[in-house]
Amino acid sequence: MPTVSRLSIAPVKGLALEHPDEIELTQQGVREDRRFFLVDETGRLVDGLLAGRMVQVAAHINPDATQLRMTFPDGEVIEDDVRVGDPVITRMYGRTVLGHIVFGSWAERLEPYAGRRLYLIRTTSPGGTREKHPATLITDGSLDLLGQHLGGVPVDGRRFRMLIELEGGVAHEEDTWIGKRIELGETRMLVSKQVARCAITTQDPDTGVRDLDTLRTIISYRGLRDHENVDFGVYGEVEQPGRIRLGDAVRVLDAVERTA
């Protein structure tokens, strides 16, 4: 069965991915994943879709999100304790996210990458930028097939910003797990549905510059779901939390019993 080849989290939504050797997956996701995000003066979310160049900046936080470090391409490092102010409510992809404005120079230093005034927000609780779907998975077979349709171009899985990348899988093997439970490391999760992709996947994961027409290419050989969704990868709903480590193998269990 496929095994874990890479784990990816984004302590600050829209910034560079971090690749730990292991994660603690809870029913809300990984505590350190997407704990911070950025908004502009209107309160609008600013992520990779609006400011792709922010992916050039790396971020690291501690598990309780009380310390934050950002490392910039020129080598500058801003590291400090996190102090929060007024509560804010942000509309994000049709849902409401609760958080607090963060004091410090991080947001100001990011403004040249976004081309606008920014405010850094820490979510009130872990997993705060999501309401469901705490895990995402993709196999190397799916990435390899996309590369073939792009003319033999290697496709870096980071551009899809999946929590769990797996090696040793055939193309879209993960889709065959939908409606089934899988065990991975100490966890058990229900694979619930396919992931609808956005234009971030067209951007180079190191520079944030658009370089591959991933969406149009996926549509060319996979089509659209419900005439609008470009699917690539799957969601996992956590039933048994636990640790997942590099090298852990997927074990597919029986299909979930469904009632009318």
Which descriptors apply to this entry?
3 helices, mainly beta, 260 residues, 4-stranded antiparallel sheet, 2 domains, M1 Pyruvate Kinase, Domain 3
Structural overview:
The protein has 260 residues and is mainly β. The chain has two domains: 3-7 and 133-255, M1 Pyruvate Kinase, Domain 3 (Beta Barrel); 22-123, no CATH class. It is 11% helix and 38% strand. The chain has helices at residues 106-114, 140-149, 214-222; strands at residues 3-7, 22-26, 29-30, 36-39, 58-61, 67-71, 77-81, 83-92, 95-103, 119-123, 135-139, 164-167, 180-184, 187-196, 231-240, 242-245, 250-255. The protein has a seven-stranded mixed beta sheet. Strands 4-10-9-8 form a four-stranded antiparallel beta sheet. The longest helix is centred in the middle third of the chain and has 10 residues, at 140-149. The protein is globular and about 50 Å long. The model has no long low-confidence stretch (mean pLDDT 95).
